[in-house]
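FIELD: query
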Amino acid sequence: MAATRGLPTGTVTLLFTDVEGSTELLRRHGPAYGDVLETHRRLLRDAVDAQEGAEVDTQGDAFFFAFPTAAGAVRAAAEAQRALSAETWPDEGTLHVRMGVHTGEPEQRETGYVGLDVHQAARIAAAGHGGQIVVSRSTRDLLGPDAVVLDLGDHRLKDIDAPVRLFQLAGDGLRSDFPPLRSLHASNLPRPATRLVDRVQESEALRSSLAAARLTTLTGPGGVGKTRLALEVAAGSLDDFPGGAYFVDLSRLTESRLVPGAIATALGMQERPGVRRLDQIVERLAEAPPTLLVVDNAEHVLDAAPSLGELLERAAPVTILATSREPLRLRAERELSLGPLPTRSGVALFLERARAIRSEELDIDVVAAVVERLEGLPLSIELAAPRVRALPPEVLLERLETRLTLLSGGYADAPERHRTLRATLDWSYELLGDNDRRAFDRLGVFVGGFRLEAAAAVLDLPEHEAADRVASLVDKSLVAPQGAGPAPRYLMLETIREYALEQLDARDELEDAASRHALHFAELAELSEPALLGDERPAWVRSLADDHPNFRAALEWSLSMPDPEISLRLGAALWRFWHAHGDLAEGRLWLERALGRRGVELSPARAKALGGAAALAAVSGDADAARAHASERVALVRRIGDDALLPGALITLANVRSDDGDEGALEEAAALYAEAADAAERSGDDRTAAAVITNLGYLALRLGDWDRAAEESRRALERSRVVGDSAGLVVALVNLGYASIDRGRPEEAASAFAEALAFQREIGDRETIAYCLDGIAAVLLGRDLDDDALRLVAAAAALRETIGASLPPYERDLHERVLDEARLRLGDDAAEVEAEGAALVPGEALEQALSLAAPSA
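FIELD: result
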């Protein structure tokens, strides 16, 4: 251990290294391994000394260094890896060293550094592979703009409570093709804000069941703590599931057929056109290490139980832990029933929550009586404990005793525990003033949370008054804040939300609140439409995703309303979001339901919805449905006589016919584009006029007229720049790149694709990135850069598979032509190079393509 003198202080960047497979190396080299180890030490120390690093400790083949700057640490790590790679080792072997870098403020002691930062840096290094440099977010944030890092996502590390975001140092001669990190998992389990009180026996029983059964269903009444216990046990069982543990929340779904999509979303999977979601999930999990799915609130969608059974039969490594108010009734199921807390544990829970509100000591006997009156239900205790802010426990007990006696009958067919929970909710509700009651009732229409502007719309109040009402309900523990910042969100627990809806229905205001909810989200969706075509697209997609459950609820509300217009407006405005978010099947389902209603045959909203349905069908590869919807849209717009809608309708049908590909279809597409251009000019729609020109360029590509394709694409570029249409600009650039390739002008093609790619640094449209990768790969073949060409075209294929995008005819021909030629040239080496390309993350593929697109020497 080095002395502390000379070690950096304050904010320090720590570097841990060790040799991967050192035991095998020792066995192979025997006594000569000492020379190997000494060379390894010399190379590391030289790199560290050059960056003013300090050696804190060394044990065997492991080192611990400290640096005053993050940049110095990563430069030393990179130089050390390059030196190790360049060194000639005995038996023509290679020494693989893994490295972890983390920045923090470790405590300095006489023997060196101590503290959580040291522990975390060591765990980061242990998660990596030989030759890899893994860095923490705190280090990444201190690096300059020239540093090339790959985002590896959130990971759970051994003995580290919270997930940590990890990155990989790349570029400048460093390897980038490594297997997944050796972290505990990349799971999505939510981390509860409070600790679980007691439940020791239940936890052990649940762990034993997970080890013995493929499906365990944790049953019990609402509010008994099923979800909380499931999360605790899942988090404590991570070592048993190296494939990860994933939380699937079904409480916000209303249709059983959406369950596979919810599972796929939890697993981070995008939809693939033409592939059943369940088949896609089985394909992912059947060959994975043992994986745990925590399927929460299954009672909402019990009809989906056979899908879970099929998943268990076809994907042997999968274990499912479900929570439900009733069993799933599958053959593989083992049911565990969760009851109330014993009085001792209930008192501990009450005191822990109450002491966060009131510091005075409470009478344990009185608290025990309160808990007994609440029958030990955790949700009842959670709701009652905060009331000690205003009421002593003795008064609290008296109020509870009165209310429980009054409501002791309850529902004749409901368990006693349900009656008790309802009594607690009734009591909490009666403590509210009239304004808070009305706000509480109406906020029950929100699913998955809400923002203040949405609350104002449903409450029919100015936003500042709505904020006061929400804040009052937060104080009373009936609404919970989610995060901070300029636009915070708020959430009602599901059981409380259901109670609020009952009260809203009882006061005969459910229809009005639901109408306001649906109208607000229709307006929000329509507000997003232009943003989803421009530079703000990523931020809007994230924002709309937060309210995805509310959009589902709004669609469900609107489909039951007498006026069918709102459901059409919602579907028409949301199709670009569903496309970007990878929810093609769900989007088509909602649009089909909205379009199936009567009474809107001549509505402009129906025309827009038909356009969205046609677009989603086309992307999904369903050409017949796309053609039918697009044709109906044109016919409807002509009947309505709406000149503003006609250009877009004609373009949609022309695009579908262009993709059909036969000679007659292409001729029809040309005529439709020409009519769309005239209609756009008449209506003064400059953006649509520019889009027509862009599509004419693409049609020329389909017809093999490369010169005209280039000419039309340049015209489209000019018009798109004038009207400020960044989405149209990018499409025109891609078309110009294609035309330049076919005209034998590869450098012009490279320039066009590079400019289109530069836009994607911010927009992040992975479908467009894939098109550009294919185009630049074609250019690279002409420069005899066969390896690079194959990597890019393989990366393009992997991107499309990830987002579920199909390939139109022209793009498919180019992609397959480049892929086949690159494979032919590389011969036996092609498979390895192709695998490298498929493993590239989108940002890395984009940067490599931009670098390679630069003019050749």
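FIELD: remark
Confidence is low (pLDDT under 50) at residues 402-419.
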